[in-house]
Amino acid sequence: MKVFSFYKRIFNRMPVPTSIKRMKRLMIFLAGLTVVMWLASSLVISTFSLAIPIRTSENSTKESYIELSKNSVNMVKNNVRIQNRSLENKTLTEIDRLIAENKKLKEHMYTQEEVISFLSQPILNEYSIKYMFNPSTACAENMNQVLFIVPSKTNNFDNRNKVRQSERGKFVNLTENGSKLFFFLGRHQGGSQKIQRLIEDEIVTYRDIVQIDFTDTYANILQKTVSMLHWVTHFCSNTSFVVRTDDDVKVNVTNIISALEEKRRTFRHFLLGEIQEGWEPIRNRHSKYFLSMTEYPHPLLPRFAIGGLLGFPAATAALLYQCALRLKPIWLDDVFITGLCAPKVGVTLIGDPRFTFKHWDW
């Protein structure tokens, strides 16, 4: 031991070459760098792990519930509007409820993927939409709130005048409301030149008619509806909302706008109307609403909204139009658009007590 201590003292007193000093400093630097890289990689791995939702057990802490719920919300795409929620002071029961809601939101993401897949399919239905009269620039200015679209028979002159004098007409006549109203007509059945001249006089007087080149019969109501969606999509997409009303009903415009604005806070694509469920298709050939087994073989109609009054964002009109081009149609337009097309393109069908209509008492 004494010998070892002696040589150790001699070795420590010996001068150290500069190259060895540099080597020691390099080794210390590399060791430090290794530690820093290890810490950084650990941080990245833990951050990445937090970004992946995990299945929690019964013993999960409140913090893990919060992280899971936050990540679930972050996974939702921009086409769903979610109100900000503060989770820090929530009870575990409340957070469980939020996680259940977020599960529905994640399911909505999958729905959107299905929508994209559906809209990528080739066009199935070729609708020939040719305009006899098209006020294509009518929405270019002062159009930012509501577009009222009204399907009307060619000879329903009195109905159209009544709509113009109703609450709808008064509302759109106020410039500050930034709204428009248009009637949609086809060609008069039988080709009456007298009716056509009266329509052209009406066009010159009011400038609120869109006329499409197809025979205007009830059997062609789907053609008219698709033409309306086409017109909104191509010529009036800058409006906030589209409201479809029949020309023989009265509605409360204030209630309609209130309901639309409220639903827009939660949904991006939705359709408001009077919802019906459990209806059987009418198989009586003498009925106005006859629907054949060939056209629709199912025992019940889908959940749908009655076409007398419908409301939706302008962007939703484009989705419904694109669906109408790709889905096997049935001639009942409200059932086809609201019951079959709406769910196919991720449009939520909603009822609201403010969104109702009544037929006029003649």
Oligomer: single chain
Structural class comes to alpha/beta
Q: Widest sheet: strand order?
A: 1-4-3-2-5-8-7-9
Radius of gyration: 33 Å
Series of secondary-structure elements, N-terminal to C-terminal: HHHHEEHHEHEHEEHEEHHEE
**Span between N and C termini?**
123 Å
**Most strands sheet:** 8 strands, mixed
Molecular shape = globular
Query: Helix tally?
Result: 11
Q: Find the count of extended strands (DSSP E, 2+ residues).
A: 10
Q: Which strand-content bin applies to the residues? A: 5-15%
**Which spans have pLDDT < 50 for at least 5 consecutive residues?**
2-14, 39-85
- Average pLDDT, rounded to a whole number, is 80
Helix proportion range: 40-55%
Written account of the structure:
The chain has 362 residues and is of the alpha/beta class. It contains eleven helices and ten strands. It has helices spanning 2-13, 18-50, 62-75, 92-119, 157-165, 167-173, 193-206, 221-235, 253-264, 314-326, 333-344; strands at residues 131-133, 146-151, 180-187, 209-215, 241-245, 249-250, 270-276, 304-313, 348-350, 358-359. The chain has an eight-stranded mixed beta sheet, with helices on both faces. A two-stranded antiparallel sheet has the order 6-10. Helix 8 crosses helix 10 and helix 10 packs across helix 11. The protein is globular and about 90 Å long. It starts with a helix and ends with a strand. Mean pLDDT is 80; it is low at 2-14 and 39-85. Keywords: Glycosyltransferase, Golgi apparatus, Membrane, Signal-anchor, Transferase, Transmembrane, Transmembrane helix. This is Hexosyltransferase. InterPro entries: Glyco_trans_31 (IPR002659).
